[in-house]
Design brief:
Residues 224-248 are annotated as: Disordered. The protein has 248 residues and is an alpha/beta fold. It is built from 6 helices and 10 strands, in the order βαβββββαβαβαβαβα. The protein is 39% helix and 16% strand. The longest helix is centred in the C-terminal third of the chain and has 45 residues, at 198-242.
Length: 248
């Protein structure tokens, strides 16, 4: 049975530190558009205006934004709770979303949100997030966060882009271990959204296609269930009609 109205899956895409949603959209445009043609992407800006110099000044026009602030060791965070509340409200108001995509700071934040949702800490009324695209992500280092977000293996479909010259290569490897059966796509570049070669494009396309097919099977089952429930309602209506006496 085919779906009457095939529905695209929706992904919330979160940009890196002191950049913007528009810049991430431009970065993702490097990828073959056919990979995610059955997905809708949403590229919001961070909650806070950039509080310092951006690495993309002179490359991409402002304004620039950040999601939260942190110390040099990435062990202390400012405005993180406010950021989490803002994103949960955004996801609830503009969703439902099927998954998250994040670069650098936002990848770290996205993994946190997925882990928190699984543990029942946030997004309790939102459908479970099903997928995660991580580009140069890391784990948080505060033990109080780690004990919740990474308490159990995170069982969502995930793909992790890890650069050979990325200064966050090892932390990105560590983040991938928090997920169940992650797909890891390696590239020779640094801390960036990479261009994909033919092999990487094929891997990402296969990953996305599998997710779409799985989601379509779920939707088909729901559609069949709805049809069966409607059929069960019809005999009741007929019986009620038969009980009506037509005056002569």
């Amino acid at each position: 049975m085919g779906l009457q109205n095939e529905k695209k899956m929706k992904i919330l895409c979160l940009h890196g530190f002191r950049t913007s949603g528009s810049f991430l959209k431009k970065q993702i445009s490097k990828w073959d558009p056919s990979i995610f043609h059955q997905f809708d992407f949403d590229f919001p800006d961070g909650i806070f205006p950039a509080k310092g110099k951006s690495d993309i000044e002179g490359i991409f026009p402002p304004p620039y934004f950040e999601w939260f602030q942190y110390n040099e060791d990435f062990t202390e965070y400012t405005n993180l709770e406010e950021c989490i509340s803002y994103l949960c409200e955004y996801i609830t108001s503009n969703g439902p979303f099927d998954g998250l995509l994040g670069f650098s700071q936002a990848s770290t934040l996205s993994a946190l949100l997925i882990g928190y949702q699984i543990q029942g800490k946030v997004l309790k009324e939102h459908p479970p997030l099903k997928l995660f695209v991580s580009i140069s992500g890391t784990k948080f280092r505060d033990p109080r966060i780690c004990e919740v977000a990474y308490k159990d293996t995170i069982k969502v479909k995930s793909v992790h882009f890890i650069g050979a010259k990325d200064w966050l290569r090892l932390p990105s490897e560590e983040l991938a271990t928090a997920f169940d059966n992650p797909l890891i796509i390696r590239h020779p570049h640094g801390h960036t959204v990479p261009r994909l070669d033919e092999e990487s494009t094929g891997k990402l396309r296969a990953w996305a296609t599998e997710i779409i097919q799985c989601n379509n099977r779920i939707l088909e089952k729901e559609e069949i269930k709805e049809d069966e429930e409607k059929k069960q309602e019809r005999p009741d209506k007929i019986d009620n009609q038969e009980q009506i006496t037509i005056p002569v």
